[in-house]
Design brief:
This protein is 39% helix and 20% strand. It is α+β, with helices and mostly antiparallel strands. The chain has a five-stranded antiparallel sheet with strand order 2-11-10-9-7, with no helix packed on it. Strands 3-4-5-6 form a four-stranded antiparallel sheet, with no helix packed on it. A two-stranded antiparallel sheet has the order 1-8. The longest helix is centred in the N-terminal third of the chain and has 40 residues, at 2-41. The protein starts with a helix and ends with a strand. Keywords: Membrane, Transmembrane, Transmembrane helix. The chain crosses the membrane at residues 16-37, 72-91, 97-117.
Length: 262
């Protein structure tokens, strides 16, 4: 009997630690999703109150892993839903009510993202006269666009891009560190951008590539917060850039195309 009591007490202790860990994980997930917005939506005179009542909200910039990519976002939210389900299954009336509320808050997160952060746009980008811009990494869909806006507001760079260069027939190849994606841009086709599996076996870039640690705005015919890489086609009609619209925000790939004078 004594041995059984000790065993049960040990099981209860371990179960208690597991539950505390689960509740803590859910709290961190909610802070990563809504914490910074909650601070920003508080009237400015009252914001110092978070130092007293919500010190963990001041750490929201350290919880931005949920915004690293859409895959991370979906995976962590899905994990949160599973944890809510387990806590509902194990808990009593109060625990079930709280876990159900958290489950609902996590479920609406993708929709709340669009309402909180809005659509993504390049605020500081401007091309020189005589050029038009092709935004190769423009997000498709409301969620993808709002997600990129959230990355900018939370200073999350997300996927980084690398220019491989132009070929003699004016095709641009570039890739990203997210899933090792590769892309080909062909301005001579109606569908400008194509995902590819690998670089052509005979690929040899015919263009030079410049990498910058800092770059004055307005040089190279493009005004933007930061230019990371630049590659110009052999005839100079096309210029490709990896840029950041904000210093610590997401990366984008742009191409400036020279247009014929009227």
């Amino acid at each position: 009997m004594i041995h059984e009591l000790k065993f049960n007490r040990g099981s209860l202790t371990r179960n208690w630690f597991v539950r505390v860990g689960m509740w803590s994980a859910l709290a961190l997930l909610l802070l990563s999703l809504y914490g910074k917005w909650l601070i920003a939506s508080t009237p400015e005179p009252l914001q110092p109150a978070w130092y007293v009542f919500g010190p963990f909200l001041l750490l929201t910039d350290f919880l931005n892993v949920v915004l690293f990519s859409q895959v991370w976002f979906v995976s962590l939210c899905s994990a949160g839903l599973i944890v809510c389900g387990l806590l509902w299954f194990w808990g009593g009336g109060r625990a079930r009510a709280v876990s159900t509320s958290i489950l609902a808050i996590v479920l609406v997160a993708p929709f709340a993202l669009a309402q909180i952060y809005g659509q993504y746009s390049l605020r500081t980008v401007e091309a020189s006269r005589g050029y038009v811009l092709d935004w190769l990494t423009q997000p498709e869909g409301n969620f993808a666009s709002a997600f990129r806006s959230a990355q900018r507001e939370h200073d999350v760079t997300g996927c980084k891009y690398r220019l491989h260069g132009w070929t003699t027939d004016h095709r641009l190849y570039f890739g990203s560190n997210c899933f090792n994606d590769l892309w080909m841009y062909d301005p001579q086709k109606t569908e400008l951008l194509h995902r590819i599996n690998r670089l052509p076996s005979d690929f040899e870039p015919a263009s030079s590539l410049k990498t910058y640690t800092s770059h004055p705005m307005g040089q190279s015919g493009l005004s933007v917060t930061r230019i990371v890489e630049e590659s110009k086609s052999t005839d100079g009609r096309y210029k490709a850039f990896v840029v950041q619209d904000s210093f610590y925000g997401p990366y984008d790939v742009l191409v400036m195309r020279q247009i014929a004078p009227e």
